[in-house]
Amino acid sequence: MEANLRKKELEENLRKKEMEEERRKQEMQANLRLQEIKRLASETLVKGEKVFCYPTIVTPDQDIEIFLNNTISSLIGESNILIMGAFNDWRYKSFTVKLNKTSFSGEWWSCQIHVPKEAYKIDFVFFNGKDVYENNDMKDFCITVEGGMNVFEFEELLLEEKRRELERLAKEEAEKERRAEEERRIEAEKASSEADRAQARDEAERRRGMLQEVLKKAVKFVNNVWYIEPSEFEGGDKVKLYYNKSVGPLANANDVWIHGGFDNWKDGLSIVAKLNKFVGKDGDWWYADVVVPNRSLVLDWVFADGPPQRATLYDNNLRQDFHAIVPIPIPQDLFWAEEEHEIFKKLQSERRLREEEIRAKAEKTARIRAETKEKTMKTFLLSQKNIVYTEPLDVQAGGLVTVYYNPTNTVLNGKPEVWFRCSFNRWTHRMGLLPPQKMLPSDSGLHVKTSVKVPLDAYMMDFVFSEKETDDGVFDNKNGMDYHIPVFGGVTKEPPMHIVHISVEMAPIAKVGGLADVVTSLSRAVQDLNHTVDIILPKYDCLNLSNVKDLDFYKSYLWGGTEIKVWLGKVEGLSVYFLEPQNGLFWAGCIYGCKNDAERFGFFCHAALEFLLQSGSHPDVIHCHDWSSAPVAWLFKDQYMHYGLTKARIVFTIHNLEFGAPLIGKAMAYADKATTVSPTYSREVAGNPVIAPHLYKFHGILNGIDPDMWDPFNDKFLPVSYTWENVVEGKKAAKEALQQKLDLKRADLPLVGIITRLTHQKGIHLIKHAIWRALDRGGQVVLLGSAPDPRIQNDFVNLASQLHSTHHDRARLCLTYDEPLSHLIYAGADFILVPSIFEPCGLTQLTAMRYGSIPIVRKTGGLYDTVFDVEHDKERAQSQGLVPNGFNFEGADAAGVDYAVNRQVHDFFFEVYYPSLTIAVNQADGFNFYVDRFAFLYRAISAWYESRDWFNSLCKVVMEQDWSWNRPALDYLELYHAARK
Asked: Fewer CB within 10 Å, N- or C-terminus of the chain?
């Protein structure tokens, strides 16, 4: 035990000794630290500086002490001193700490600060807690942190934190919206339930009143005419109803039937039975077993000599019908309370079923459109795969992307090197232009490649290619447009542009032609991409204001010696400013057709720019259209860009060069970028003298169609809703409805639809020829359209009279405007013919495909750009990311339209449907014999007759193709950005 005590004593002495050594060591370190701090203080005083820190080399994730020499600061004499600061250029973890006065000589104050591991710099000032600051002569104090992350690494950290924060906020917003939607649903259900209850109450009262009148006529029996056994019965019982047919109009009938119902025929004809002969009672008595409906008060019936649809003679009690009282076992008030409740439950069930159908349809519509939009974006990204593409195709912020480039299809063909020059966010990214990268050969042979890390705050990837690392030499910059690929998932979104359309037409309120559709549909599509779009339109006195929501007076201003009133309203979700000059220029009862149209529209263009100027608006792009708003281009450049509208750029679109060429030519000269409505039309008019000098800024961008207006799944004019999934059933129902509506033969025949203005531009001679050829082939033809020229209109009136006489069950010419009928034709036709002599874009063929109808078109303008012949255009379609979708022909004579209407793809037909015959034909000496023979049989209409499976699959194909504004809107946005460069 003594040894143990001794051992513990020795251990205790050793522990005390160690503690004493540690204390002396700490005192020594503290003295050394104090001496070092005093030394630093002295040096700082000598230098005349106000601040130093200890340790002098600051590293991340450590505590430091900051000292202030208050004798030379603006806080001298203050008893309360605080430090206020943050890290990394005041961008990270701000702090405020109180300073304490030190014990060593001088007026030194200090505090401790912890430096986080993410810091590369400390920024701070001192103050007295109120309004007196020491901020280093307005430059603030800063201390560099050594060995930590750099500025770019810190930027990535902030972006990652922002990304997580955005994800959190998005989840919160989604949950908030879910709760709000649930509340809206509960409120809507409550309101609907109250409405159902009120309707049930009214319906029960109505029925009660009506049945009271019927009950006055109802009895338990009529002597020698009818009676019921047993005489006491109620709902749900089976009874025998007896009838003496000898006393009524059925005395000589061989058979007797009861046609019955209940409660004043509430559910129509619900009791049908044949009566049997009854033996054992005087008279000609017959009877039937009848089950009395539950909860009925009155039985209603008549007698007849046969079942429904086949009876010819009735005993209906002198037109009053027969009525028998059904006793009820409960009081009347309780019965009607229960009846009201049953009606209420039925109304609720029917309403909820309708709401579920509407909800399911809306969800399917949204899903289809989202899938279509995603597919279109993929096509957009792959549209230049022969030149450039990326892996992954959808470039993600924060990820690595590899860019593949094929110089053989560009101006860099044959160059020994290719250099990649890249930045982000339309060349405005904080990192600036990345260093040029030499591209390396890829496994694909023709392509070279390089990889780039995409920053988290990127929304667009921008790049060009060059032959050298230096800035001289040949560049491929996509003809001045540069290459741009959208980046997904970034923490920064593209700043919205402000686009203003100045137009004299807009669908549906002021529509004459396709220009109106483009203004509305393009604006909606761009607005859906999160940009701001406004439209300026004349306030015609003939506007269809029923399609304008929230129309209110906005302001007035003076220009051109007249007051101009401005009205603001919403059209198709777009903000529209209506200009109404009080000089009456637009109180003419029409849009076009006045002798002073040029004066009217010139005044409007000037007034529109004046409105933008006086309103203080600063749009990024002003988009004007055709000759009618062409003056905007030169008025802006000559006048308004010098007086406050300096930010804007002018984009001008030619919809039809047939009208106003001199005005169009002048606008072309002044516009920053110019477009027309299809690539082929842009090439067709490239040689025109008003276009040719400006080809460097002239682009062809296809129009699209409005997927809301033209949607067979939500079309109120169709008997059956359909998508590509049930296109066969949907189009069959539509064809039957069309045949019935126009009194055509109800038969399964190929039907050619023609929906057009009847003008020479639309190929009216080809239309006439095609009508006869289609009829010769046993088909049906429906034409909808009218002619502005009375002579052409009269010509078609005569043709209609002839056809309705000779082919009354297979041809119908409707020479008028009929919106519902146009929808039914698009859906019910198998083919839609568009044989235009010239067609800048054309919407008819696009709408046809939206409805699963196969277009037959002449190769011109937008018709050529959108319809790819099933025989000849496979490669051309593939280059657009598509598959063949119709029939086209060249020439403007009858032979061309004959070929398209009648010829089917014999190669394709052989290959798919008769592969063995293909082999035999290819091996035979008589190959040309077979080709000639089948060139007649296997034609477009013959494809319908002979190859229905193939034809039906083609209908599905064309419906799946996206001809909306999804893709054109992306192309226009690229053009808008290029105009702003």
From this structure: N
CA pair distance 855, 392, nearest whole angstrom = 36
Residue 652 pairs in a beta bridge with 624, 674
Cα angle for residues 87, 93, 96 (degrees, 5° grid): 90
SS in 3 state form for 607-628? HHHHHHHHHCCCCCEEEEEHHH
User: How sure is the predictor about 904, in pLDDT bands with cuts at 50, 70 and 90?
Assistant: very low
Torsion-angle region of residue 742: left (phi > 0), alpha (psi -120 to 50) or beta?
alpha
Looking at residue 26, what is its pLDDT? 83
**Alpha carbons within 13 A on the beta-carbon side of 947:** 23
In a 3-state reduction of DSSP, which class is residue 868? coil
SS3 506: strand
**How confident is the model over 42-97, as pLDDT tens digits?**
999 889 899 999 999 999 999 999 999 999 999 999 999 999 999 999 999 999 99
Q: Are the CB atoms for 292 and 235 separated by under 8 Å?
A: yes
Q: Where does residue 164 rank: exposed (0-12), middle (13-18), buried (19+ CB within 10 A)?
A: exposed
312-350: b or e for each residue (b if 16 or more CB lie within 10 Å)?
A: eebbebeeebbbbbbeeeeeeeeebeebbeebbeebbee
Question: How many residues are given for the chain?
Answer: 981
Confidence of residue 577 (pLDDT cuts 50, 70, 90): very high
Question: Is 930's pLDDT higher than 70?
Answer: no
Give the separation between CA 336 and CA 330, rounded to whole angstroms: 10
- What are the angstrom distances between the C-alpha of 690 and each of 629, 658, 675? 16, 12, 13
Q: Is-contact 389 448, C-beta < 8 A?
A: no
With residue 925 as reference, give the H or E element that holds it. none
Task: Name the phi and psi angles at 594, rounded to 5.
Answer: -85, 155
Q: Which of 266, 259, 242 is nearest to 316 (CA)?
A: 259
Strand partners, 287: 242, 276
Torsion of CA 604, 610, 613, 617, to 10 degrees: -20
Find all residues with CB under 8 Å of 345, minimum gap 6, and list them. Answer: none
Mean pLDDT check: name the lowest of 277-281, 417-421, 576-580: 277-281
Lowest mean pLDDT among 350-354, 576-580, 910-914, 938-942: 910-914
What is the maximum alpha-carbon separation in the chain?
A: 142
Q: With 60 as the cut, is the pLDDT of residue 1 above it?
A: yes
Q: What is the pLDDT of residue 9?
A: 79
DSSP state, residue 813: E
Count of CB atoms situated within 10 Å of the CB of 639:
14
Q: Which of 704, 709, 755, 713 is nearest to 734 (CA)?
A: 713
d(CA 55, CA 52): 9
Between CA 498 and CA 623 the distance in angstroms is 11
pTM of the predicted protein model: 0.81
pLDDT at 925 over 70: no
The residues that bridge with 666 in the sheet, in sequence order, are none
**Alpha-carbon radius of gyration of the chain:** 42
Measure the CA–CA gap between 307 and 319, rounded to whole angstroms.
19
pLDDT at 935: 31
Q: Locate tokens 């483009």: which residue?
A: 518
Give the whole-angstrom CA distance, residue 773 versus residue 213: 65
- Which H or E run contains 112? strand 108-115
- Cβ atoms of 148 and 120 within 8 Å: the answer is yes
Dist CA 397 CA 393 (whole Å): 13
Contact (Cβ atoms closer than 8 angstroms) between residue 581 and residue 590: no
Q: At what angle do helices 764-776 and 790-806 cross, to 10 degrees?
A: 0
Q: Where are the alpha helices (DSSP H) in 494-552?
A: 514-528
Q: Is the pLDDT of residue 922 over 60?
A: no
Is the model's pLDDT at 914 over the cut of 80? no
